[in-house]
Amino acid sequence: MQRRWFTSFAVAGILSATPARAQDLRTPRLEIGATFSGIVPLVTTDGPGIVGGVGPRVTVNVSPRFALEGLADVLGGLESYGTTVLYQSQLKYAVRKAREGPVLSFTVGAAGLAWYNRVHETRVTRPDRSIAVYPGSRRFRVNPPYTFSAGLAREQVFGRHTSSCLAVQGYVGELGGVALRASLGLSFGIGGYR
Amino acid sequence: MTASLRVLIGCAVLAAGCDAGGRPPAFVIPGPTVPSPLPTTAPYVWDSEEELSIWVNNPVTNGSVALASDDAAAFIRIDQANRTWVLRGPDLAPPVADVRTLRIRYRWRPDSELPASAARTAQVTALFQATGPVVGYDPIAQAAANIALEPALDWTDVEFVPGQYKPPIEITYCYLYSLGANRGVIEIDRLELVR
User: Fold this and answer.
1) If you count Cβ atoms within 10 Å of the first and of the last residue's Cβ in chain A, which end, N or C, has fewer?
2) In this complex, is the C-beta atom of A118 within 8 Å of any C-beta atom belonging to chain B?
3) Above pLDDT 70, what percent of chain A?
4) B142 touches chain A (CB under 8 A)
5) What is the predicted pLDDT for the residue at B176?
């Protein structure tokens, strides 16, 4: 397993040394999209076997090959109250970026979890006719992004403004110990792809 | 505030994590009061007709509860034990400290026509309105003590067993509550705070 990861890193490194070519795809400065994902915890024994997520994704292309990406997945299938969100920021480096065909990128980043919970007011009338009042509340909690993520993304432009993204990432850290996330996304390039 | 400063603050919040909001403390809207026409002083025993009448005749007590008497003395009679009933004690002024539980003297006669397989115990709960929190998870919870009354044709003394609260506690009043047992008649001729 370790050897496979090492090979992946090595291949990514070698490919990243290739300079951008004239026929490279020109991506817009900003891409906005949505992602559907599935997360499989590999180590944790309790909890669900797979967690589904959906949420927005914003990509800022800072150079022809480097991009900063932020995404948030509202997770479903968890045994918890309220809404759980996986947030992630990552660097994306295009190791192959031709005008025709898919764009292969290497991603590395940090992820964390956030929670939002809204509780409605509860009133319990007791047998002695007193009323216990538990006021409603809203609570928002963000855990620091102490989960390391790395993976590969395959993007395919179709049309002038649209691209798809298929990504596989590994997670190590607080987020389920060791987990694997596969996602399928759709992005709209502000200004269009050329 | 510049855009980069906003981004910086956002990153700092994420890096440190944050926890905003939270539940305001719970509170209680008091129910009807039950002033005692008699001074509430030690030993906190209610067994005379006048004292038992306080438990029966108040706006909180409900169910088929009535004051009865035989040649010997007065007692509280719950003649439809299969229905919900509440028996509220008087307000204790000042609050009574060092209370461990409640003791009652009772008779419980399940209906003779009950099938042989029917349960013959009657679950009753004594609830105490404490002056402070009695359990950590719910600061406004009332202290509860429970008993399963066994059938008894003669007057029998029993103490309620404290539930999740840790005695002793300081209380302002207490009451008995039952969701109902099988058909039968419960009689109580004495109530006493155990300290």
Assistant:
1) N
2) no
3) 82
4) yes
5) 97
